[in-house]
Amino acid sequence: MNLSVKSLQSLSSEKTLNLKQVYLDTKIKKIIDILNEELIGLVPVKTRIQEISALLVVDKLRENLGFITGNPGLHMSFTGSPGTGKTTVANRMADILFKLGHSKKGHLLTVTRDDLVGQYIGHTAPKTKEVLKRAMGGLLFIDEAYYLYKPDNERDYGAEAIEILLQVMENQRDSLVIIFAGYKERMEQFYASNPGLSSRIANHVDFPDYSPEELLVISRMMLEEQQYQFSPTAELVFLDYITKRRSQPLFANARSIRNALDRARMRQANRNFDSGGRILTKSDLVTIVDEDIKKSSIFDFTFRD
Questions:
Q1: DSSP class of 180
Q2: Cα-Cα-Cα-Cα dihedral of 254, 260, 264, 269, to 10°?
Q3: For site-directed labelling of 305, which of 14, 22, 102, 285 has its Cα 20 to 30 A away?
Q4: Shortest CA distance to 91 belongs to which of 71, 74, 110?
Q5: Measured between alpha carbons, how far is 44 from 164 in angstroms, rounded to an integer?
Q6: HSE-CB for 146 with a 13 A CA cutoff
Q7: What are phi and psi of 67, to 5 degrees?
Q8: How far apart (Å, rounded) are the C-alpha atoms in residues 147 and 144?
Q9: Domains with residue ranges and CATH for the chain
Q10: Paired residues of 111 in beta bridges
């Protein structure tokens, strides 16, 4: 419905614009709260998600009042190192879009190049279309998306998959949101080689690496989830471990921390197993101590992940 300036003024004077109530009615506050609890740090990421959510809520209010609402571009790019929460944020974004009516099913489908690109002529199109069919009504998360484009291989079929994705992004954006994810530098090269793709993505979100202090908080939360805890001194030793590990190759933020804690629990279990038959206390079973961490090879300069 198109409204004149006069009718808009009349409408605004007659109706109360209760934005807070509309926000509460959508029930996305709970999702935002969960996201803030799940993720330590990442302030720029949380800010962007909040901004997207705010725009969609305001659009919902405008629609309820009879205003014209455009179709906001919701395709996204998530860039950053592994283990920085990209998949977690994508899952929460799927929930938000579902609550706001921008997604019919609210599911998230995660794929890689192998799910989209075929190995011979005529194989890529049906593979890509099958994935898109499964993703319709929700979000499609393409991890390590830069692998779709291989300019050095003339017989590669990734370009065909990209063309199909471009068509869907433009013509069916009411039915599907696509998120491209991967390392920042490689994704920038990927977009530079595909101007049409980059122009269809309105939201570029960069996920920064966690600081050592943030990773320590994350490690504490991970242990609490499994009903473990650090001894007071072990926490300081683990902070030292984090600092050393961050400078090593193949560091993957929260993923590497989870792996390190799994190994620490193994050492703790083995230490208790070799305790000479003494009676174990509850504290023995739940506490990670200094030696459970210091036995990591990272402390003897012969690192292995």
A1: E
A2: 90
A3: 285
A4: 110
A5: 31
A6: 16
A7: -75, 155
A8: 6
A9: 5-207 (3.40.50.300), 212-300 (1.10.8.60)
A10: 142
Cβ neighbours for 101, distance < 8 A, ≥ 6 positions apart: 60
Q: What angle do CA 242, 248, 254 make, to 5 degrees?
A: 45
**Tokens 């409204």 found at:** 3
Average pLDDT value over all residues in the chain:
88
Whole-angstrom Cα distance, residue 54 to residue 56? 5
Distances (CA, A) of 208 to 41, 85, 178, 205, 243: 9, 10, 21, 10, 16
Calculate the CA dihedral of residues 257, 263, 265, 268 and round it to 10 degrees.
Answer: -130
Within 10 A of 104 (CB to CB), how many other CB atoms are there?
Answer: 14
pTM as predicted: 0.85
For residue 193, how many other CB atoms are within 10 A of its CB? 14
Contact by Cβ (8 Å): 219, 261: yes
Sequence-ordered alpha helix ranges (H) in 226-288 = 232-246, 254-273, 282-286
Q: What is the pLDDT of residues 91-144, one digit of tens each?
A: 999 999 998 888 899 999 999 999 999 988 889 999 999 999 999 999 999 999
Under the phi-then-psi rule, with left for phi > 0, alpha for psi from -120 to 50, and beta for the rest, what region is 83?
left
pLDDT, tens only, 144-164: 999 998 877 767 889 899 999
Dihedral pair phi/psi, residue 150, rounded to 5° = -130, 85
Token couple for 274: 């070799």
pLDDT score recorded for residue 3: 47
Q: Which contacts (CB < 8 Å, 24+ apart) does range 243-247 have?
A: 243/212, 244/298, 244/299, 245/298, 246/209, 246/212, 246/215
**Residue 35 identity (one-letter amino acid):** L
State both tokens at 172. Answer: 């069916």
- Supply the DSSP symbol for 300: G
